[in-house]
Write a structure and sequence with these properties.
Length: 262
């Protein structure tokens, strides 16, 4: 059944941190690899609002259901970033506002390029842009949720597991909206199907690729998505993507992961 904006809005909200004992990380710190992954997720979650800035310049802003979703979505993603900041701070790291400010200072030029390329894509795509945006969003949410699940498993830390479980539940709400909208909008627009397939094939990179250094992207992909379990997760997400109208047999993630780890 199509997930309506009303059902998403009624569930959306600030991440519940009740009972999460962040001091536990001082006594039982995470491994260096788990911490490195958390820095990645922290930075990417906090970058969501910059992604939103670009999207609001496109035809997406004309659809009130899409903007209602984006308003709640960006709020939820902010609190994911804030929660991860508290984990990093419990390890004695600089996180939250000062880390995000430094990241943005270093990205001024790249941000301008990102905004211009989003605008160019939107101008070229017309009405089909929103379907592309919904499909892109679904794929990014599927991979983010799967990344958190793999990190939870790899870190083996009970407090982190509970925190990530709550974050993943909200990512599930994002998946429901993006995937149902992508299915509907692609299903009724052949041009959108062709455009989305083309853009994903040529431009899609793992979430965070536009924000994080390439070595960090390669590390995360290797840490979370290599080995037998990682490959199974990647193939499962590819099956989700391949079920979207016009994206059959795309094998998007399998190809992207192979290129990154080559
Ligand atoms: Fe998130
Ligand atoms: Fe999300």
């Amino acid at each position: 059944m199509r997930t309506t904006i009303d059902s998403y809005k009624s569930r959306a909200g600030r991440l519940d941190l009740g009972g999460i004992d962040f001091a536990d990380f001082r006594e039982r710190p995470l491994s260096p690899d788990a911490l490195r992954s958390l820095r990645y997720f922290h930075d990417v979650e906090h970058h969501t609002v910059c992604y939103l800035r670009d999207l609001l310049l496109t035809p997406a802003h004309q659809d009130p259901e899409i903007t209602a979703f984006l308003s709640c979505w960006v709020f939820e993603e902010l609190w994911h970033g804030e929660a991860l900041a508290r984990v990093l701070e419990a390890h004695g790291e600089v996180a939250g506002t000062p880390r995000v400010a430094a990241l943005r200072r270093g990205r001024r030029r790249r941000e301008a390029v990102t905004t211009l390329s989003t605008l160019a894509t939107a101008a070229f795509s017309g009405r089909a842009f929103v379907a592309l945006h919904m499909a892109w969003g679904a794929i990014n949410e599927w991979t983010t949720q799967a990344g958190y699940a793999r990190l939870s498993e790899a870190a083996g830390h009970p407090t982190l597991r509970e925190l990530l479980r709550r974050i993943m539940k909200q990512e599930g709400g994002h998946i429901d909206f993006y995937a149902s909208e992508a299915t509907r909008r692609l299903g009724e627009n052949l041009r959108a199907q062709r455009l989305t397939r083309y853009m994903l094939t040529h431009l899609w990179r793992p979430v965070g690729s536009g924000v994080m250094p390439r070595r960090e992207v390669a590390f995360l992909v290797d840490y979370l998505f290599s080995g037998e379990k990682g490959v199974q997760v990647v193939e499962r997400i590819d099956r989700h993507i391949d079920r979207l109208p016009g994206l059959e047999d795309l094998h998007l993630l399998t190809g992207a992961m192979a290129r990154l780890t080559a």
